[in-house]
Amino acid sequence: MTTLTIDQIAGAIDVTCDTVIRNEKYFSDLDGLAGDGDFGTSLATGFKVIKAELPTIDRSAVGAMLLKIAMVCSKHVGGSSGPIWGTGFMKAGMASKGETEVSYEKLTEMVGAALEGIVARGGAQRGDKTLIDALIPIHEKMQEMDGSDLGAVLAAVTAEADKAIDETRTLVAHRGRASQVGERSANTPDPGIVGIATILYDWCKHYGVDYAPQAAELNR
Ligand SMILES: [Mg+2]
Prior knowledge:
This protein is mainly alpha-helical.
């Protein structure tokens, strides 16, 4: 069975920090199309702190590491994203409490716990044009697969997030700041969904997994 070590998980988080920091302006510009234009800066502010603290974060257990990252998110990620991303890391950390490595089943459970927490915290439903429109199909795909080939899983979940960009593009946002502009949010991609898809696509590139993206936002 495939397992991930704490150092491998920390490595993936470090790649995520680089993605978020590199896309600060792009994510804020996307958010500015229908929202208040703070998404990229909110996220990057927090992930700069995570990047700086990651080398010295407690790695005695996966849960302890993720709970520490959750605290940094809650404290340093601004806007509505702080509680959402903080809750995601906190629930994933609680689901992996005490583990020193993570099986594929456990990883799937952690993603499910993060998703459930984010739904409870943000109150969004599927189709409300938020990042859960990417996270739900990602979690379903993980449940369908056996995890014997993590590269295949990564390509498959990246495809789900990629599809979610175009499937939700013409929807009107019902949650978050974008909902306040109503119809103006139709025909713009959701920055949270693009954020998830961009992180996963960068993981593909970093780990040498072939993936040909469809959405324009991943083909820049
Ligand atoms: Mg915003």
